[in-house]
Structure formats: C-alpha cells, structure tokens
Amino acid sequence: VDTPLARKDVSLCCVHCGRKYPFSLQFQCDACGGLIDPVYNLEGCKIGESSKPLERYFYLVPFQQLSSAVSLREGNTPCIHAKNLGKRVGLSHLYLKNETLNPTRTTKDRMASCVLSVFQELDIREFVASSTGNSSSSFAFGIHQVTHMEVHLFCGRDFLYRHAYCDHPRVHLHVIDGDFVQAGKAAQKFAREQGLLFEGGFFNFARREGLKLAYFEAFDQLPEEPAVIVQAVSSGMGMYGAYKGVQEYQQLGRMKGTPRFVCAQQKSCAPMYQAFIEGSATIQPHHIIHHPRGIAEAILRGDPTRTYPYLYNIVTATKGCFAAVSQSEILEAHALLQETEGIDVCYASATAVAAAFHLLHQGWLQPTEVILVNLTGGVRV
Ligand SMILES: Cc1ncc(COP(=O)(O)O)c(C=O)c1O
Ligand SMILES: [Zn+2]
C-alpha cells in the first residue's frame, strides 16, 4: 500500500521570462511583471484516493505539506451527461460539471480552500480581499474552518446582498459607497496602509490552482475527453487554471487532445469578446465598460485589461473563442436547464450554457462533439 506523500517541493516560475522563484507569495515577476505559476515535479506524480480534492491532487497543488490542506468540504461535485437538455437543443454529448453543489454554492470554494492552505503554510494570519460576492463568501466561509486567520472583505454597496457567511468575529466586511472596481481599489489601499497582504485576485496562483481542481475532477469523471470546454469569465482565473490543468494532464499522459476553450460573457458586459472579435490581443480603452449592468452579476467586470492577454493566448492556442450572449439567451438557458435537468444555476452559469447553444446555432460547435460546461455557481438562499 502506498503511503500518501506528506511533503513535496514547489517552485515558482514566471510564465513570460522563465525566471524561477522559491516557494513564496510571489505573484508577479520582479524582472518582467509576468504572471507566476507554480511548477510541480510530475515524475512519480500520483492521483490519490482521498475524498478531499486538495489531498487527492496533492502533487498538483501549490502548498508543500499535506498537513497544510484546509478543507471547506468542497468538491466531489457531479459531472453529468445532460441527455435531456442535450436532446432539446441538439447536443448529444453535453456534460455539465455541477459546481453549484459546493458548500457555498459556487466553484469559488475550491479557490478559497487552496488559498487558505497556502496562507496557512506560509503563516499568513490576516489578509484583504474583494470580489463581486462569490469569492468573498467562499473566503468568509473558509475562515470559519481555520482557527488563526482573519480576513477583511471589501464590497460595493450594491453587491452587499451577495456576501454570505460574513457574520463571524474573524471576518471583517467593509462596505464601500461605490461599485466593485472602487471596492477593489479601497481594499488595496487599506492593505497598504495597514501593512496587510492583499490576496491578489487573478494574480494569486493559489486561486487559479484551486479552481483547476474542478477540471481535474471532471476529466477523471468524463467517459471521454472533452473537445470543448465552456465557462463564464470575469477575470478568467478559472479558465486559466483549467488550461494549466489540461497541460499537466497531458504531461502525465492522462489526456491526449487539447479542448477548445470557450470564454462566455453577457453582451451587456463583454469587453473580452469585443477585443477578441476585433483581433486585439489586449483590451483597448474603447472595450472597457465603465458602469457594467447585466443579470449575470458574478461576471460584471467591465475592465479586464490586466488579465485578458493571458486569456487571449489560451483561447488562441486552443483554437477556442470568446462568446457573448444576450439576456434573453441567458434566461432561456436558465429555464431550460431547470426544466430538463432540474438544476438551478445563477445567471453566470446560465451564460456559459447559453454560449454553448449559441455556438451550436452558429455552426462553431458540432452536434456530436463532447462539450463540458462548468456550472460555476448556483443560488444561495
Ligand atoms: C459563478 C461564477 N462563475 C464564473 C465566474 C468567473 O470568474 P473568473 O473568470 O474570475 O474565474 C465567477 C467569478 O466571480 C463566478 O462567481
Ligand atoms: Zn519574468
């Protein structure tokens, strides 16, 4: 019987210039500003048996000691063959990863469990974060599960109702008169002034690596390899993690092909889609949406300037695309999913489902292709 590995070395590497860093909270390269990814020694890498995803995929997550793993009881969500929905719309191999069944109802619990594990290992006792609600709720819920950590969460007043689990002595919720962008700025200012760690959002590799595990699970559950992967994007950290996961599974011989990556946005806030259809590898000022509105609130990010170039590269490398869908397409996908599969999702998830239907109608997707749609979030009651 194999005893599980208790410790491994993780190194960090700049994705632009290749500069190496020791394991630490280095989020961007000192030399070139590039994104930092953790790199694992894949030799001897095994997928374990634990029911806890961070332990099961321990070789492929960014903390060095198994004992650092923090569990939010996240993961192990079903990946279903949506036969009824597929029949209705004409997709014979439509698979849905149902991340709405995570403890706080979103895939962000995987983000929080991984970040808190890394913070625990590096003895971070207090940090600052902000989000449109789901990530912050996952952090707040996660704080309940650890004993010596405090979090300061910043949110715009309009997004306050989207923040759950904040009623806890070690969760400090700061409500800002402003939107999500202003809340993010206030969070960074507060962190600077108080000498606290700002957790980094998209740039925090532990966030991306945690989200990756939804895809490892899905790949392990699927009876066949996906030809296409669809997810709603805000910053794109989930899709970034997914792509790194695909590359790791390929290196491990667990996956042969490269699925086409589809990043889904709602038409009323689709800066990435706009840039992409103009053939632009960067967000330009006219792509930015200054006061974004739309029913898919979790993905109301009007200015993805700093993260889009990474997503553009992934979409291009995988021969994927960005897609934008209308409110009526989102509402229809939402209702169809409920009616045919009995799954209640948030409108960000419905955006991803609608994008798959949209691309089928456009002929970009073929009816028999294996499609994996990540239902990233549900509704908290
Ligand atoms: C339910 C849900 N789906 C998708 C996303 C997209 O997130 P990102 O593109 O930053 O990974 C979010 C982000 O908050 C979310 O809450
Ligand atoms: Zn660099």
Describe, in plain words, how this protein is organized in 3D.
The chain is an alpha/beta fold and 381 residues long. It contains 11 helices and 13 strands. It has a 6-stranded mixed β-sheet, sandwiched between helices. A 4-stranded parallel β-sheet has the order 8-7-6-9. Strands 2-1-3 form a 3-stranded antiparallel β-sheet, with no helix packed on it. Helix 3 packs across helix 6. Bound molecules: pyridoxal-5'-phosphate (PLP) and zinc ion (ZN). Residues 14, 16-17, 19, 29, 31-32, 34 line the site of zinc ion.
Descriptive keywords:
381 residues; alpha/beta; six-stranded mixed β-sheet; four-stranded parallel β-sheet; 13 strands; 34% helix; binds pyridoxal-5'-phosphate; binds zinc ion
Please outline what is shown here.
It is built from 11 helices and 13 strands. A hairpin with a 5-residue loop joins strand 1 (11-14) and strand 2.
Specify the overall morphology.
globular
Order of strands across the biggest sheet? 4-5-13-10-11-12
Order of helices and strands: EEEHEHEHEHEEHEHEHEHHEHHE
- Secondary structure category: alpha/beta
* Span between termini: 44 Å
Total number of helices: 11
What's the Cα radius of gyration?
19 Å
Major beta sheet summary: 6 strands, mixed
User: Which ligands are bound?
Assistant: pyridoxal-5'-phosphate, zinc ion
How many beta-strand elements? 13
Helix content class: 25-40%
Whole-number mean pLDDT: 96
- Low-pLDDT regions: none
Strand content: 15-25%
* Oligomeric organization of the protein chains: single chain
